Amino acid sequence: MKISLSIVFALFLCTVGYGQNVDQSVIGSTGDEFTGSSGSIEFTLGEPVSETYSTSEYQLTQGFHQGYYLFVGIEETTEFDFTTRVYPNPAVDQTTLELVGIQDFNNFEYQMYDLTGKLLRSGRFESNSIQVNLTGLSNSLYIFKIQNKNLGYAQTYQLQKIK
Q: Which of 13, 33, 62 is the last residue of a domain?
């Protein structure tokens, strides 16, 4: 009787011990798991963000796999007695960047970015207007930044390329 009671008690402890073992695991409709020598990570897609923890080196977002995000910001100033123009908009093959009401255009430059923040074109103003070639670019929205670092001037424009 003592032996059967001991066996039942041992089986009970094994069951309870196993039942309390919680492996960190994600169950989802899509995702992946990566394992390396320093640890492992599992993620799924389509879940809402519930909470984010970060340190100086790492960032952990629970409930959502957050990839690498690059935030592009351009500071704009508008307190100057000249204007800049980008035309035609929408454009097909080329667009014109023009400085209106300024004589010293030597320190002005432009950059053209796609919507992911990738720099596509750049140049310096040699006169008060520049023709920018748009051939070879897909029909999309592009961002132009016209700036003069010496004056602290920066202005952005959105340009729609069509056809």
A: 62
DSSP codes of every residue in 63-115: TS---------------SS-EEEEESSSBSSEEEEEEES-S--TT-EEEEE-T
Alpha carbons 56 and 78: distance in angstroms, whole number: 35
In a domain, 69, yes or no: no
**What is the gyration radius of the CA atoms in the chain, in angstroms?**
30
Residues 32 and 34: their CA atoms lie apart, in Å, by: 7
pLDDT tens by residue, the chain, 163 residues: 667 777 777 776 666 555 545 444 545 566 777 788 877 676 666 666 566 767 777 666 665 444 555 556 656 555 777 888 899 989 999 999 999 888 888 889 999 999 899 999 999 999 989 999 999 999 999 999 999 888 888 888 999 999 8
Count of residues making up the chain? 163
Domain total in the chain: 2
What residues make up the domain containing 96? 83-160
State whether 56 and 88 are in the same domain. no
- Which of 109, 111, 118, 154 is CA-nearest to residue 138? 118
- Domain presence at residue 70: no
